[in-house]
Design a protein that fits this description.
two-stranded antiparallel sheet; 224 residues; alpha/beta
Length: 224
């Protein structure tokens, strides 16, 4: 009986939780992002059926708007691009490089939007573009966990701006922490602060994932 009532009430409560998540958008931008991050775990405890995907997407929208003006002023040569290997086609012949991520053969003839986005960034002058491999799925290949890979590459190349393309699950489990966020950039206490922009995947599948390619391309090209 209690379970049935909870099921009937959960959509309303879920909606209430989302409304609470939207309320901070009425505050100044510099307060909105940290408040959304602070509220995430308490809301998850209060409403276990909270739509975590929708909450993370709202948080990313706020964060992108907050950092976008500064990101657009950063020259291409001072940016890094991180793409997820879950966007690669099923017949992908690439090899895993523990330092560089997914390494595309120079003579690869497969149609691949992932490679196109990486090449676009390099043609524009990005300092480096990586296709990040899941360290969790490839432990035997000596691959770092994706978060450690990002932090190490950022420390190595010292960019001012970073574009990250990832799923909502990865973002909330690895990056949605207050000590990762500051007015001068993200990854503050865990590495070199960078001005970020995020393009979220459309799902959380580790293989055959999807993204809005046009949105990703516009983000890569964004510049004043």
């Amino acid at each position: 009986m209690v379970t049935a009532q909870r099921r009937r009430l959960s959509p309303q409560l879920t909606g209430t939780a989302v409304e609470i998540a939207i309320m901070p958008m009425l505050l100044p931008a510099r307060l909105t992002l940290p408040l959304l991050v602070i509220l995430y775990k308490p809301l998850c405890r209060l409403w276990p059926w909270l739509d975590k995907d929708a909450y993370v997407r709202r948080t990313v929208e706020v964060g992108n708007r907050f950092y976008a003006p500064r990101f657009r002023r950063i020259p291409y040569a001072e940016r890094l691009l991180f793409l997820p290997y879950c966007l690669r086609p099923a017949e992908c012949p690439t090899e895993i490089d523990s330092d560089q991520g997914l390494a595309c053969p120079p003579d690869c003839a497969h149609s691949c939007r992932l490679r196109e986005m990486r090449d676009l960034a390099l043609e524009l002058g990005y300092r480096k573009a990586f296709i990040v491999v899941s360290g969790k799925l490839h432990k035997t290949a000596g691959v770092l966990r994706s978060r450690n890979f990002l932090v190490r590459r950022i420390q190595e190349y010292q960019p001012k701006g970073v574009i990250g393309c990832l799923c909502t699950r990865d973002l909330r489990e690895k990056y949605l922490r207050l000590d990762n966020i500051a007015a001068d950039g993200t990854l503050g206490r865990h590495g070199t602060p960078v001005i970020p922009q995020v393009c979220l995947l459309e799902n959380c599948r580790c293989r055959g994932s999807q993204v809005d390619w046009q949105k990703l391309e516009l983000l890569i090209r964004s510049h004043e």
